[in-house]
Amino acid sequence: MRALVISDIHANLPALEAVLAAAPQHEVVWNLGDVVGYGANPNEVVDSAKKLGGIVVRGNHDRACSGTMAYYQYRSLSWLASYAADWTQQVLSKENQQWLSKLRRGPVRPLGPRLSCVHGMPKNEDEYLVEERDAGRALKASRAWITLFGHTHLQEGWCAMGKDLTLMKPNFLSRNGAVRFEVALCQNRRYLINPGSVGQPRDGDWRAAFAVYDDSEARFTWYRVPYKVRTAQRRILRAELPDVLATRLRDGK
Fold first, then answer.
1. Mean pLDDT on 196-207
2. Is there a contact between 219 and 181 (Cβ–Cβ < 8 Å)?
3. CATH number of the structural domain spanning residue 207
4. Tell me, what's the pLDDT at 79?
5. Into how many domains does the chain fold?
6. Residue 74 class from Cβ within 10 Å (0-12 exposed, 13-18 middle, 19+ buried)?
7. Angle formed by the axes of helices 42-52 and 79-91, to 10°?
8. With 0-12 CB in 10 A as exposed, 13-18 as middle and 19+ as buried, what is 43?
9. pTM for this predicted structure
10. Rg (CA), the chain
């Protein structure tokens, strides 16, 4: 079984289209959340996510843009995220807003207890998993062999053997074009892995990020693909969203 693993599309339709065009053959899609927010095409991206099927884990921006986030919870969002969430609420169709409001909060376990899909930390979709101490807490909170997470917009992961933690990152051969990096997973270790962000990478690489997990061969492959970033930028500016939401796409930050 091969799963296409995507996360943090953030209403960036050109990036999602490039990912779907480049993705290798797969049987299912695992979406780790933040389908909307920041980008200018929330309805189109939600419609695509619906058609893809599979599982969709609720992200913090999905919750904010669906209108189900309490006012005091907006404190966890930056002014930029809050502004974009307000704009997104206004342009989303009622049907798509309701779809977002019904997304399942992680963890979601598509293969039973051995694999878990979350947005942020296993028990808190708003909390970031970045540092080694975060990874240690996440491993205690999730007993799964593999925990797939998003939220940080960073294409990386952690490998645990006993109490020893090792940071994992793809070592792409090129900063141009489409690239991939494959990792073989060991049964006697545990993993926390982020596929990266489709529509808002923040690791200095502007290309859209995604991954494929092959359960039969225990292999995880990270991918980066170029997309029509100028189109995404023009749409953001035409929507009169803050300019920084457009400029940051090219910087990958």
1. 97
2. no
3. 3.60.21.10
4. 87
5. 1
6. middle
7. 80
8. middle
9. 0.96
10. 17
